[in-house]
Amino acid sequence: MTLPSITVADGATGAVAVSTSSLPGDVEPSSEQAAARLDLAAAVPDAYDPPMTPLVLTILGDDRSGLVRAIATEVTAHGGNWERSQMAELAGKFAGIVLVSIPDERVAAFTESMVPLQGLLEVTVQRATSRTDGDGMLQWTLEILGADRSGIVSEITTVLDHHGVNIDSLTTGTREAPMAAEMLFEAVAELEVPPTTDVAALRSDLEDLANELMVDLDLGATD
To answer: Could you report the per-residue pLDDT of 13-67, keeping only the tens digit for each?
Structure first.
């Protein structure tokens, strides 16, 4: 009987050739032979898996239904993948940032497809860039709660910048204080702290500022 075998004919292109090898009589291949052929087949590159380009979309427009669907439809139509996103409605405006992957040969067409959406959304498309400066960073979380007043974000971020701390994400909001007429400001920041940072000094500076601003502040390592 004859059994098919797969060999890589061109290492540069990943092209494959199919040949046959004979075994005497009706002898079946051993389990080791079968496993080896399966491993070889798995090692052959998938010719139908195109290289992808990561793109970052920023969007802004009047809040209305169908905005996310409009973008998602174009991503799918161009063979892309929706990977990560953060979106929110603020004061009647809908804003967000989206990471998608689009096949290399369709990037230009996808970018052009965003132009007709300008009647609904302002969309910008940029190629994503790789980050290596986050390697080795310590992950910390900063939580703030106190009476709302101007300058809180500015003064907190000034201290963080002084210590070389990077803000990975920041969520802020205001709400009514229970049993009081004042508004409360609250914030949660995910931080990247360099391993060389003097954490004790950072904490001390933040606590001094919290006392000055009369806010509660909690800084701790992310679990």
So the answer is: 444 444 434 444 444 556 665 555 545 444 444 456 789 999 999 999 999 999 9
Determine if the pTM surpasses 0.90.
Answer: no
Token representation of residue 193: 């702290």
10 Å CB burial of residue 142 (0-12, 13-18, 19+) is buried
Residues 69 and 6 in one domain: no
Cβ within 8 Å of residue 100, ≥6 positions away: 54, 55, 57, 75, 80, 81, 82, 83
Rounded Cα distance, 114 and 198, in Å: 46
- For residues 219 and 223, give the distance between their C-alpha atoms in angstroms, rounded to a whole number: 12
Share of the chain above pLDDT 70, in %: 76
Q: Which residues, in sequence order, are CB contacts of 178 under 8 Å at separation 6+?
A: none
DSSP string, 71-111: HHHHHHHTT-EEEEEEEEEETTEEEEEEEEEEEGGGHHHHH
Instruction: State CA 36 to chain mean position distance.
Output: 37
- Supply the CATH number for residue 203's domain: 3.30.70.260
